[in-house]
Amino acid sequence: MPTYDTRLIDRATVARDTEAFRFAKPEGFAFVPGQTISLALPQADADAPPLKHTFSLVSAPHEDTLCIATRMRDTPFKQALAALVPGAAARFSGPYGKLTLPETAGRPLVLLAGGIGITPYMSMLRHATHAGTPHRFVLLYSNRRAGDAAFLDELRELTRLNPQVRLLATFTAPDERHEGLHGRIDAAAVRRAADGLSDPWIYITGSPGMIEALGEALAAAGMPEASIRSEGFYGY
User: For the chain, percent helix, then strand, then coil, each to nearest 5?
Assistant: First the structure.
């Protein structure tokens, strides 16, 4: 897999303890929405191997920069990432991954995201809205509180711009002002989200525990295994 040199352009807070980092997009690098890169950062000891972490790309292919987003944690990689200043050099390889949009838009997509698992869907929804594709989406997005939900305002704007996108945000510990959905994503919530959709794809992104539990629940509820695609987010 090719390796590319890049540099940090800027960063922004997108939710509680969550930062988005924009990097320069190298000439010749191409990807499809939903794919990942492996980002490598140098260590203070020049003789030590670089620190590496895999990230889904938030940016869509038409954008002229590459964006990743992550929960900030006290790990060696996240510490190195937090220490980057605009202009700092980095390298990455990729793209990787098969959690991408289907080639045809005949089947609707029910996208299930836990926390920072929203990132590959941002790329898909940005792309679909920009390109005007006929894909139909229902996004069920779970967080503890609204302040933990990265890109929530942008997602609401995407639903305004693209009538093919429906957003269902649910919170497990909402404050008293929240009037939306409450609770974790489970098989019953997925059935409600998919109500009226014919033979949908089910995509799941989030922690490995969430994916395993949801996969088992959906299988028990009769969802065909061939219709389910998933990607686990480790170390976030």
Answer: 25, 35, 40
Cα–Cα distance, 234 to 36 (Å, whole number): 13
Bond into 163 cis (ω within 30): no
Cβ-count burial of 176 within 10 angstroms (0-12 exposed, 13-18 middle, 19+ buried)? Answer: exposed
Q: Which token pair is 41?
A: 């950062």
Q: What pLDDT is attached to residue 176?
A: 54
pTM exceeding 0.90? yes
Domains of the chain as residue ranges with CATH: 3-96 (2.40.30.10), 109-232 (3.40.50.80)
Orientation of helix 152-161 relative to helix 119-131, angle to 10°: 30
Cα–Cα distance, 199 to 201 (Å, whole number): 7
Cα separation, 67 vs 57, in Å, equals 6
The pLDDT tens digits of the residues spanning 70-106 come to 999 999 999 999 999 999 999 999 999 989 998 888 8
What stretch of H or E contains 189? helix 187-193
pLDDT (tens digit per residue) in 179-216: 567 888 999 999 999 999 999 999 999 888 889 999 89
Q: Which amino acid is at 129?
A: T
End-to-end CA distance of the chain: 24
**Is the distance from CB of 135 to CB of 107 less than 8 angstroms?**
no
Rg (CA), the chain: 18
Per-residue CA distances from 113 to 45, 107, 230 (Å): 37, 19, 10
Q: From CA 32, how far away is CA 124, in angstroms rounded?
A: 8
Maximal C-alpha separation, the chain = 58
